[in-house]
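Final report, Chapter 2: Outcomes

The project's central promise was a pipeline that accepts a single protein chain and returns its three-dimensional structure in a standardized token representation, suitable for archiving and comparison. That pipeline is now operational. To close this chapter, we reproduce one record exactly as it appears in the project archive, with the input sequence first and the structure output second.
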Amino acid sequence: MSFAKEYEFLTEIGIQPRNSGCFVNGVWKGSGSVVSSVNPANNKPIAEVVEASPQDYEEGMKACFEASKIWMQLPAPKRGEIVRQIGDALRAKLEYLGRLLSLEMGKILPEGIGEVQEVIDMCDFAVGLSRQLNGSVIPSERPNHMMLEMWNPLGVVGVITAFNFPCAVLGWNACIALVCGNCVVWKGAPTTPLITIAMTKLVGEVLEKNNLPAAIFTSFCGGAEIGQAIAKDTRIPLVSFTGSSKVGLSVQQTVSQRFGKCLLELSGNNALIVMDDADIKLAVRSVLFAAVGTAGQRCTTCRRLLVHEKVYDSVVDQLLEAYKQVKIGDPLEKGTLLGPLHTRASRENFENGIKVIKSQGGKILTGGSVIESEGNFVQPTIVEISPSADVVKEELFGPVLYVLKFKTFEEAVEINNSVPQGLSSSVFTRSPEVIFKWIGPKGSDCGIVNVNIPTNGAEIGGAFGGEKGTGGGREAGSDSWKQYMRRSTCTINYGSELPLAQGINFG
């Protein structure tokens, strides 16, 4: 078996026509099902992967748990140095990895390369963080006593990632988990196994070069069986899960039953509000890529466009004109803005979703159909619909934008907050009063609250995540690192007396 000519570049990042899908104690193996990774642009196989079996999982976890005893004792700046080297290894293969990501997931090449760059940036962020894992010194009310906080590693962190960001989400979690002193067990999405393997190979090479146990970073390609094993495993104190609210709730319940901790990044149903004083051209440009980028498969995709009645017609007209210019096609081709949906099932969900939208009074302004081809291509779609329609409360994971009209800012906030999800939100306005209401206690109820920028494109320096059905987790920047460690409040008596025991003679 050999690669088709256009896939030969994959050998540069360690991918073969047939690959073992488990990195267990420094050895590549796999004794589970054989699956094919498929190019969503034509639904043809790229390469085969042998997935993990329960036996592979248990062998890998044993080794990882033992390796954690070594890794957590390394000084944090030394751990940071290892993560720095991982970043350099990714830099050296940036173009290849980005191309693989676009090929296997379906996002356009600039997005594929940009996503790998985000992991590199997270490595840099984590290197600095490795010297700043600071606790507090707290004044004690007792004489000759000191109180302080110590932050120690959890041990092993489980990371379960989704197909839409198969690299970035790993970076947000693993880079910080590693510098905090934890080993990482990674289960990539079942439909993006090649990027899981390519990333793991680079990390494994860095660990080997530094004479460290390879089991510090353990990864599995596999399906729900492996995810359930991670959720149930008492050796994994923290499970970070990215996916749907439905599956995330199941993971949380399983982990909670053993008193483990969860970090959940789940569904989004993000609104962008255009006020009557907004810069309309800026808003339209922002909406276009926020709604169409990654074929609407970002958790931060703009799904609801709320437009003030005074500028409604102008905004919709300009947006429809912009949609006409969207180039749909092979994500690896220069100039493509909209690639395919990730799977055939995604395309079917799109078709079914359009039927439901029409049944609930939605008016298709543009798009609304699949594109007949070998791949999973659909038309970017704009729908005029009532904010009270049930379908608006759900997340249709595709390039479908609901356009909703409002009269007052308070009404727009109410519509924004009316859905079960609470990830990202944005308002376009020139009014300081509106801005500060928007980011205040009676404004957006989301974890990401933007002004004059789209709902997508979060920076790693801030904590990423959302409220309500989005799960409440926070990844990447700010003080997100605290989730990957355990806090101890320590009281030290450096005197010779115990204040509470004064007046008692102990002989």
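Archive annotation: The domain at 270-459 is CATH 3.40.309.10 (Aldehyde Dehydrogenase; Chain A, domain 2).
This record, like all others produced under the grant, will remain available to the consortium after the project formally closes.
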